[in-house]
Amino acid sequence: MQAQRPRQAPDRSMRVVSKEMQKYPSDVGLLEYTFITPTGSNAPRLFDSPSSFAKIRWEHVKSRVRDRVSLLVLWLASPAKKGFFKRTIKLSRSNVTPTAVALHRQMYTSFAEGDVSTLRKICADGIFDSFRSRIGNRQRGEKVVWELVKYNKGPRLVSHRGARFPIEGGAIRQAVVRISSTQRLTRWIKGKGGILEQVPGSGKEKTVEEYVVVQRTTERWKEGDWQVWGTTSETTLEEITEWERKKLE
Question: Which of 107, 144, 160, 170 has the most CB atoms less than 10 A away?
């Protein structure tokens, strides 16, 4: 059920977006060097591996500074409106988390109901195509019900950054919000006599922790609506090592 997306080449569409101005893709991948602090069993322990612990901590600090600088640069690049401090791009951090939570709920509800038109509006191209395909593969007359049983803890903004496209007035903001919840997905199919029967194994409660990626693209310095890109996972030591190798090339 999760809208999981693989970590793809972050600059895949960024390099070609200037050639596709008419299309203006909504899915440019996960921005390069997006850092999600590992937690729980994924996080290195200080006494077990001091070097790994220090590496994660240092990357956490660097990423927070880098993310804030990227947003500041984006804000300064946007045209001023009635004075220096009022600009076209508004970096309203307080609205990001509740927006992501609302989109997360609407996305799964629309997927269950087979509401392709709503998914088209609130999802980036890649995850929309995945949802549309899965809806199309359902059995005829199949009914799907998604329920949010409860939130297990408050949502948390773990990444918020920006980047400019190689087009004047073109940019993107991406945010990652951690949402921990208990969900239930129930499937019903037609049995004998056309009566709906619950699919065995469905309808069970499941505790899920998701890192939901939402994004907002800007064209000619006009911001669009927030959309769901998909979900991602916590950053690993191997990924950090790969980042370091790429920077040295």
Answer: 107
Write out the H or E segment, with its range, that includes residue 202.
Answer: none
Instruction: Return the amino acid letter for 170.
Output: G
- Assign 81 a pLDDT band (cuts: 50, 70, 90): confident
What is the pTM for the complete model shown? Answer: 0.88
Separation between Cα atoms, residue 203 and residue 198, nearest integer Å:
8
Provide the 10 A C-beta neighbour count for residue 171.
20
In total, the chain counts a number of residues equal to: 249
Question: Nearest-CA neighbor of 128 among 107, 146, 106, 156?
Answer: 107
Instruction: Give helix 50-77 / helix 237-248 axis angle, nearest 10°.
Output: 60
- Taking only the tens place, the pLDDT of each residue in 113-124 is 999 999 999 999
CB of 104 closer than 8 Å to CB of 212: yes
d(CA 178, CA 131): 21
* CB neighbour list of residue 89: distance below 8 Å, 6 or more residues apart: 74, 75, 77, 78, 171, 218, 221, 223
